[in-house]
Amino acid sequence: MANKAKKVIDYQINYQVLTSQYFAEVIQLANKVHGDGYLNNETLISWVNTGITDNINTSFVALHNRKVVGFRITFSADNWHIDQWCSPEKWQVPKQQCCYFKCNTVDEDFRGLGIGKKLLNLAITSAQQQGAVAGVSHLWKQSPNNSAVAYFTHCGGEHVASHPDKWHEDSKQGYDCVLCGYNCHCEAAEMIIYFD
Questions:
Q1: Which Gene3D superfamilies would you find in this protein's record (predicted)?
Q2: Which of 127, 147, 181, 184 can pair with 132 through a Cys bridge, CB separation 3.0 to 4.6 Å?
Q3: Model pTM score
Q4: To the nearest 5 percent, what fractions of the chain are helix, strand and coil?
Q5: Given this model, what pLDDT does residue 4 score?
Q6: Predicted pLDDT of residue 172
Q7: In whole angstroms, what is the distance from residue 47 CA to residue 40 CA?
């Protein structure tokens, strides 16, 4: 895409809080990018609700011509389950003050325009308003050219730990990984951003 076209598109991106009016498009984009079965209506409702505290929503969509071209889902601090894929002893801040960056997705045709970073910054601002001082995420190391880890690092993310087979159980439950199918062995990089 030419630089001029990039500037025109970037200028026309509109960011909104993720509400039910965008659910169908978010699910469609999520399953297109991450693989069938990644997201459904019931799961999305749960995820979005996990990111709302004190009437502050930490999840957002990016719109171009009123169409969803990206979204960021974030869980509120102390409102999400810390499982075996997390290393809170390495976070350097109380786990109750860490939000969780669950999912960041941008349509392939709109990548490289800063949409992911803007969505992350919006989520951070809302999470801070809820009392979070840091945010943890698991980045897909098998993304093309490891772009997910590179993007998160560029935004200030620091590596905490690596977790092979992070999404294996999900794949056995119907998640069709775009690389591995229903037997996912992709590796996750657990990373943290401190909100200084």
A1: 3.40.630.30
A2: 127
A3: 0.86
A4: 40, 30, 35
A5: 41
A6: 67
A7: 10
103: Cβ–Cβ under 8 A, 6 or more apart, which residues? 30, 34, 39, 47, 71, 72, 73
Q: The tokens of 170 are what?
A: 């999900």
- C-alpha R_g of the chain: 16
For CA atoms 159, 160, 163, 166, give the dihedral sign: negative
What are the domain boundaries of the chain?
A: 3-194
**Which pLDDT does position 95 carry in this prediction?**
95
Please tell us whether the domain made up of 3-194 is placed in CATH 3.40.630.30.
yes
- The two three-digit tokens of residue 180, written as one number: 């591995």
Cα–Cα distances in angstroms (integers) from residue 107 to residues 62, 71, 76, 110, 121, in the given order: 10, 9, 25, 5, 18
Mean pLDDT, consecutive 10-residue segments, the chain of 196 residues? Answer: 48 92 97 88 97 97 96 96 92 96 92 92 98 92 71 91 74 69 77 93
